[in-house]
Design goal:
One of its GO terms (molecular function) is ATP binding. It comes from OM182 bacterium MED-G24. It contains 14 helices and 11 strands. The chain has helices at about 5-15, 20-35, 50-60, 75-80, 110-125, 160, 175-190, 205-215, 220-235, 240-245, 255-270, 275-290, 295-300, 305-315; strands at about 40, 65, 80-85, 90-95, 100-105, 125-130, 130-135, 140-145, 165-170, 245-250, 295. Strand 3 and strand 4 form a beta hairpin. It is globular.
Length: about 325
């Protein structure tokens, strides 16, 4: 069985376990294929924890959940030195960040120093302690969550730190049919009827798929489309007065890079060896959403990033 088919089978199985959240499942697989991290925003109880924990079990990955609270310390994430009395030396005790898949639950509950400790590990793929550095695993993904309902006692992530996330995903409640399926699945699991296990997918297969993404065919037209979307966010006055009024700062080069690799991952999961403008459009909201800095006028009139991205798609030609 090809690596692509294995990933498609994994996606189909995950959607039987994470019911009513196909977009979250799809974005998780895009992030892990693109070797990036994602920020997920949604109300409590929408299977965010279950999604990444289930994915970890399916790809032979170690999972750890970190609950962010105001009293959390950076060393609670990265680890610290402990004294070994028997040898009279200090030994570095690795923290939970050294697992393969990390759930940073309610990341905006912790102060800036803790947030930056996590984000540094995400960006550099290593932990520095004193004069030593410790590499993180080759398979390393952080899924951070934010609760959009409660904002009291939170520490919003600065825009420069948000830029470290490959994707910013918004999820909503499941529909009525999915809600019934969730009830049935919970009852089956309570009775010990967990159904078929996940399809086998080794980390080596995943790493091979990542290399395949980079060799997928992308025409100069699609590549130019990606660049033009980014440039339009930086030079909005060339695409209409509304955009010029709504955008304070455009998308960084990380947005261009992220849009390229996520479009490739989307095409790969769709079973194609080439990237189309539709692939770009299918992921652009999640790639750009947290990188666009809206103006005061946009915020005052209730114009959000998604509306601005919709307008960019209308104004920027695909060819």
């Amino acid at each position: 069985m090809s690596e692509r088919q294995q990933l498609q089978d994994l996606r189909a199985w995950l959607e039987t376990q994470i019911i009513g959240q196909p977009d979250l499942v799809h974005r998780l697989l895009i992030a892990i294929l693109a070797d990036g991290h994602l920020l997920v925003e949604g109300a409590p109880g929408l299977a965010k924890t279950k999604a990444i924990k289930t994915l970890a079990g399916a790809i032979e990955g170690e999972f750890h959940r970190i609950q962010f609270t105001p009293d959390l310390l950076p060393t609670d994430i990265t680890g610290t030195e402990i004294y070994r009395a028997e040898s009279g030396t200090f030994e570095f005790q690795k923290g939970p960040i050294f697992q393969n898949l990390i759930l940073a639950d309610e990341i905006n509950r912790a102060p800036a120093k803790v947030q930056s400790a996590l984000l540094e590990s995400m960006a550099e793929r290593q932990v520095s302690f004193g004069r030593r550095t410790f590499p993180l695993p080759d398979l390393f993904l952080v899924m951070a969550t934010q609760n959009p309902i409660e904002q009291e006692g939170t520490y919003p992530l600065p825009e420069a730190q948000l830029d470290r996330f490959l994707l910013h995903v918004n999820i909503d409640y499941p529909d009525a049919s999915s809600e019934r399926s969730i009830l049935q699945l919970v009852r089956q699991e309570a009775q010990g009827n967990e159904g078929a296990g996940p399809p086998a997918l080794s980390q080596e297969t995943l790493f091979s798929a990542r290399k395949t993404l980079l060799t997928m065919h992308m025409t100069p037209i699609v590549e130019e489309y990606i660049v033009n979307l980014t440039l339009a966010s930086r030079q909005p006055d060339a695409y209409g007065d509304d955009l010029a009024k709504w955008i304070e700062y455009g998308v960084s080069p990380r947005g261009t890079i992220g849009l390229d690799i996520c479009a490739r991952a989307s095409a790969y999961l769709a079973g194609r060896d080439f990237v189309t403008p539709d692939d770009v459009q299918s992921v652009v909201h999640d790639v750009f959403r947290h990188r666009l800095i809206t103006s005061f006028e946009a915020e005052a009139t209730g114009i959000g990033a998604d509306t601005i991205i919709d307008r960019l798609l209308e104004q920027v030609a695909t060819a």
